[in-house]
Amino acid sequence: xxxxxxxxxxxxxxxxxxxxxxxxxxxxxxxxxxxxxxxxxxxxxxxxxxxxxxxxxxxxxxxxxxxxxxxxxxxxxxxxxxxxxxxxxxxxxxxxxxxxxxxxxxxxxxxxxxxxxxxxxxxxxxxxxxxxxxxxxxxxxxxxxxxxxxxxxxxxxxxxxxxxxxxxxxxxxxxxxxxxxxxxxxxxxxxxxxxxxxxxxxxxxxxxxxxxxxxxxxxxxxxxxxxxxxxxxxxxxxxxxxxxxxxxxxxxxxxxxxxxxxxxxxxxxxxxxxxxxxxxxxxxxxxxxxxxxxxxxxxxxxxx
Amino acid sequence: xxxxxxxxxxxxxxxxxxxxxxxxxxxxxxxxxxxxxxxxxxxxxxxxxxxxxxxxxxxxxxxxxxxxxxxxxxxxxxxxxxxxxxxxxxxxxxxxxxxxxxxxxxxxxxxxxxxxxxxxxxxxxxxxxxxxxxxxxxxxxxxxxxxxxxxxxxxxxxxxxxxxxxxxxxxxxxxxxxxxxxxxxxxxxxxxxxxxxxxxxxxxxxxxxxxxxxxxxxxxxx
Lengths: 304, 222
Fold this sequence. Notes:
The structure holds 2 protein chains of 2 kinds.
Chain A: H1 2-14, H2 16-52, E1 56-60, H3 66-77, E2 82-88, H4 90-100, H5 105-109, E3 119-124, H6 130-138, E4 143-148, H7 154-201, H8 203-211, H9 216-257, H10 267-300
Antiparallel strand pairs in A: 1-3, 1-4, 2-3
Chain B: E1 4-13, E2 16-26, E3 31-35, H1 42-49, E4 57-62, E5 65-66, H2 75-81, E6 82-85, H3 97-107, H4 112-126, H5 141-153, E7 159-163, H6 171-186, E8 190-195, H7 198-203, E9 207-212, E10 215-219
Parallel strand pairs in B: 3-8, 3-9, 6-7, 7-8
Antiparallel strand pairs in B: 1-2, 1-4, 4-5, 9-10
Helix pairs in contact in B: 3-4, 3-5, 4-5
């Protein structure tokens, strides 16, 4: 392997312009791929944010005992249509109220926990099932009243926003897939051409190796490794360029979208996302390199 | 049973008959000069032996196996058993002399731990120890020939086939190369040398197989 690696590095060093052309095309491919991957992630986050946003709040009657509440919570927990289930006690409701009126402490002091009803909050996993869930909760004995958060304008308005976001997400994915597909095919062809040129340049050497008993794989290995070097370098350069741009733009993105977690805010999660994209791109890059070079070898190298 | 046997082998290139009904056997440990004028079919013998080409008729048996019937995947194994010194050397121009030997060892899957000692031994044998880090383009004619011989020898093959190893060399250098091949033969190797150098055949005692117009005209073993 060490011998093949050395041969492949020698090949790159002896024809630097071919190497640069291949690396640059791959870098552009993976630069765009990284940006598209981040856009797809962000649009998914945006959609997820709005999809899980609408909450159904079931206000409980004052005489609801703990056993009844636990029984209802248990049923909701096992229901696949329910997400983000949460029980808000009277005390917690008061704390929320006080936090919301923190700019006017007097309002908080005038109330006691007893005036706030306990409630069960949850999001429907699918917005289409919201009405069904509301009706189901209304039939519960310990439920006094049902509320549906109006943060984004009630269920109809929420549905409208989500539908638009779904459409945008769909187009981002389709346009991204087309762009990545075109660039991946270009990279594949460039690698094929570069490896094909390398085979033409080294025809005598390849013949010599074959005549002294080299197996086809022994002859092919340095050329496949050379394509993998181009690909890995292209991936790293493209990913690095896109990552730097996203990192530079992230403070502006965070302030524009406010609470919406369009990008991970914690550094560890942010770099985990970039790391996952890099890992995925490396796998795709190596795949393109192996198939591009083997395809080129099968077309241009006929060993006797 | 001979190590190498040609049984009524013919080879045609279109309408040209390169070999016609050629039959001979070479035993293990023999040294043979294959001689004849240009176009007599000497290099065709080598190409048939390493399955670079197939015979039009007849059979070649090497080490008990029919060369013509070998499967494609078994051809590299056959070639690894034959140490060939090609007329045009076929050294890798971008590798040094010792790297050329390393590649032959890598091809034959020799354990890496043995490489340094083996390369040192063969380069010492052919007198190229001082030139091991030079590229083929930096060597003189006789040195290139010896480097090609070192690469052929390093894998310890069953047989050495040197195709016109003295072709472009002056008498003194040619004599040195043949002496070296003789020395290798004396160490127990089977050596086949093709040459049209009459003086070499006269000076070095060995079996002579003379080809003319694709046929065996003389075989001193018979």
